[in-house]
Amino acid sequence: ACGAGDGSAGGSKGAAGDKIVMGFAQVGAESGWRTANTKSVRESARTAGIELKFSDAQQKQENQIKAIRSYIQQKVDVIAFSPVVETGWDAVLLEAKRAKIPVILTDRAIDSTDTSLYKTFLGSDFVEEGRKAGKWLAGTASGPVNVAELQGTTGAAPAIDRQKGFKEAIAQKPDIKIVASQSGDFTRAGGKQVMEALLRSHPDIDVVYAHNDDMGLGAIEAIKAAGKKPGTDIKIITVDAVKAGMQALADGEINYIVECNPLLGDQLMDLAKKVVKGESVPERVVTEETTFTTEQAKKVLKDRKY
Ligand code: AHR
């Protein structure tokens, strides 16, 4: 747990009439997951009475760094951000630390040895998500299986970790081979484009493992255009479980989805209030998540909020 008092704006912030100001540097609007995450953050800030300064980095690290610098200049009470990529944050986070503005990592982690640069990290266990995807495949596959992996943004924590967990889980089955692995940048257009090329270079693909629903949905379009049946001729595994993904799963075009929960807003605002007051918070808050088969998707689809 992080110590009380150090580096926080402290004082009477959060008391009536003295609104906490949060600077939030979002990754972008690349996916259905991200849209749901942004909505959750905005709504929860409103409910918690926190003034939110919001910026969209359009998936570019330099934009996020600029946004964080501007929040430091504006002397916000707390900065929260979801880092586009894992590395390259130490300099700007040191500036925040020197300005005594606490930082919360949300959704994605950074790769830094200096853990004093942030108070806590709220988000999913992406390695575990990859493991769940790999375990399902290892449990259902028989005989040789050629996998095409559609990776998320190069250098992003979920892309690195979802690959790691998946590889770990399929290691026990040497018949399962990743024959191609390329980034589709977590977008539907990216997934479609990469899949079109992969279908030409690897006509023997049996399974697509997409690091998110959007890329999986893009792959479905490419597979159909190539005259094949997604979910049948080529099985598809994705991560997220946003509504469009769950619909495709219910329709049998996706075969399995590992959930990644974007509704982090309420927990984020609770943590923000605590760090601003100088209270201690856990170093790591992990989101609870599940998995879905076609049958399960059919049952929950109508109540799916995002
Ligand atoms: O960091 C979470 C990931 O980012 C989601 O799984 C993906 O859809 C998003 O773009």
TrEMBL record:
<dbReference type="InterPro" id="IPR028082">
    <property type="entry name" value="Peripla_BP_I"/>
</dbReference>
<dbReference type="InterPro" id="IPR025997">
    <property type="entry name" value="SBP_2_dom"/>
</dbReference>
<dbReference type="Pfam" id="PF13407">
    <property type="entry name" value="Peripla_BP_4"/>
</dbReference>
<feature type="domain" description="Periplasmic binding protein">
    <location>
        <begin position="28"/>
        <end position="279"/>
    </location>
</feature>
<comment type="similarity">
    <text>Belongs to the bacterial solute-binding protein 2 family.</text>
</comment>
<protein>
    <submittedName>
        <fullName>ABC transporter substrate-binding protein</fullName>
    </submittedName>
</protein>
<keyword id="KW-0732">Signal</keyword>
